[in-house]
Amino acid sequence: MKNDDAQTILRNNKTSEHEGGGEGGGGGGGYFGTDVAHTLFCKPSSFSRMSQVNIYFAGSIKGGRQDVGIYSQIIEQLKAYGHVFTEFVGDKNYSGPTEADGKKDKEIHDTDVSMLKKSDCVVAEVTQPSLGVGYELGRAVALEIPILCLFRPNEGKVLSCMIRGAHDGSAVTVVDYTDIVGMHQTPVSDGLLGLSSAPDTSIWRCL
Ligand SMILES: O=c1[nH]c(=O)n([C@H]2C[C@H](O)[C@@H](COP(=O)(O)O)O2)cc1CO
């Protein structure tokens, strides 16, 4: 798996479905489909034609930084479509507040919650379990912010029932994927982020 490719898409993803078929289903296998785009970017009419989309990316920090390279690549993709509040989550040199930066836990919490409240969607890489990410997802659900969770089953981990079980293909979408490959703005990433390849349309158009 090449995780160092700067221009990436998620490959071989499959929308999560519980054994026996989850309610609402997840838009079938293959690549990210219009269901995901709809989930993320086609909230009722208030969502149409916004000038800037704010994206909250969530990924493990204190829970373990082994996937930071993947976070960074996902963030790079997301930046093509809007403002990512939490770019530092993909910074390999960041592992939490230090005495030197003087940031207190409360300040971090309050700032993050404030950014979350201003977010139009949340994208979380959930392969590496993290209490903070779980907390952010719970807050986002309460705030009715659409959520996309990305999980890599081939890492030998099992996703929490509270995340996979939250998948409804609407407010919360859980997608299993295998790896990230080097391409940019393909139908896959377009599907993920609702970006139409047609030049005269914007990402806010429902697919
Ligand atoms: O320093 C931090 N800054 C910060 O914004 N967070 C937020 C963003 C991440 O999506 C999430 C990670 O949580 P955790 O550290 O429990 O793995 O919490 C978490 C920490 C460290 O707990």
UniProtKB/TrEMBL annotation:
A GO term for molecular function: 5-hydroxymethyl-dUMP N-hydrolase activity
EC number: 3.2.2.-
Keywords: Cytoplasm, Glycosidase, Hydrolase, Nucleotide metabolism, Nucleus
GO cellular component, one term: cytoplasm
Localisation: Cytoplasm; Nucleus
One annotated GO biological process: nucleoside metabolic process
Top-rank taxon: Eukaryota
One Pfam family of this chain: Nuc_deoxyrib_tr
Classification via SUPFAM superfamilies: N-(deoxy)ribosyltransferase-like (SSF52309)
UniProt catalytic activity: 5-hydroxymethyl-dUMP + H2O = 5-hydroxymethyluracil + 2-deoxy-D-ribose 5-phosphate; a purine 2'-deoxyribonucleoside 5'-phosphate + H2O = a purine nucleobase + 2-deoxy-D-ribose 5-phosphate; a pyrimidine 2'-deoxyribonucleoside 5'-phosphate + H2O = a pyrimidine nucleobase + 2-deoxy-D-ribose 5-phosphate
Name of the top EC class for this enzyme: hydrolase
The keyword Nucleus belongs to this UniProt entry's keyword annotation: yes
Signal peptide: none
Record-listed substrate binding positions: Y71, E136
Function: Catalyzes the cleavage of the N-glycosidic bond of deoxyribonucleoside 5'-monophosphates to yield deoxyribose 5-phosphate and a purine or pyrimidine base.
Quaternary assembly: Monomer and homodimer.
Family: Belongs to the 2'-deoxynucleoside 5'-phosphate N-hydrolase 1 family.
Xref: HAMAP family: Nuc_phosphate_hydrolase
Protein name: Putative 2'-deoxynucleoside 5'-phosphate N-hydrolase 1
